[in-house]
What does this fold into?
Amino acid sequence: MDPHRLRNLRSPEQLRARLEGERQRRTTLSFYRYVRLTDVETLRHTLYQEWEALGVLGRIYLSQEGINAQLSLPTANLEAFRAALNTREAFAEVPWKIAVEDDGKSFLKLIIKVKKKIVADGLADDAFDVTNVGAHLDARTFNQKMEQGALVIDMRNNYECLIGHFEGAYLPKADNFRGAIEEVTKMLRAKEAQTDDQGARSVDPVIPASSREGRPTTAPEILLYCTGGIRCEKASAYLKHQGYTNVSQLHGGIIDYARQLKAEGLKSKYLGQNFVFDERLAERITDDVVSSCMQCGTKSDRITNCHEATCNMLLVQCEACATKYADCCSPSCREIHQLPIEVQRVWRKGRSTRSTKTKAVNDTDGLRQRIREEEELLTLNGTLHPELMDISPKPK
It folds into this structure.
């Protein structure tokens, strides 16, 4: 088949209508595997044809280092999908993580992309052994080690931690994996330096990584966690390269942790929701609300994207503010979003999307100050976008 045809050719409206018209139950799941793959382009085209025939929708990344998949498919086709995976040695018996909450509308289309890496981590993999990873822990053992005082570290981005996290975990402020791993390493070295100041074993926090490899440190046992486990694989290998030998990770991530809680009747040490990278944005693990609306400060963990197309920033927004600001992050975005779609298209022409540079709002105080200033200007001038006068339809 022509590779050009092996991609989505429908509009978002058509895709949504198709999904809404389905009369079959869907299951959302994710999996990954670090494994050496060859002829990745051909594999991509073959998988697209196979999986499209099974009704798979989702986002799948392939590279020479493996596969990273988040997808949904008709529940009736689960066995056939597993059989198709098992026919390939590289994917045989790969563990799945089944979504905690699933309305069947997690994905609208099938996307399979060939990438340099299955996770954009920004790390030079040839600088350390990516297979020398931390110990894999189940939910029960992870809970026990937390109770014994292990240092728990969230390896997700700052906006993912906002709506849910393990109690007492270190939450990086970075909005990408590279920034998070560097921040975590700096934090661990600062702890070593503090221990050294208190008269404990001498450990130089600025020894270069190449000299530290394999050396024990004074850090406590480190427990890493992320959404499905894939980022912890790389992070644990990196930290072990830095000399932190006592590193473990939550096997299967938060998704499988929630499954094990239900299966074994364990108490959740994770509080709130789990951020997911699909149409749902979040799935609830516990009823705890650990965040606040970024616009008014009310306790809320409702996470959403600004509906103004050139903004699209993620933010925590309560229902009242969603109504007040028309599902937008600010009065400025609200004014554009409420224009006729034809005028919006003219206004958007040539403008880049803000969220391509920063995924989420990370300065709550700055956002609230911006809202106050924009409301004042709007009251004073009647608009925040004088340029609209040149493109808005003139009254007849």
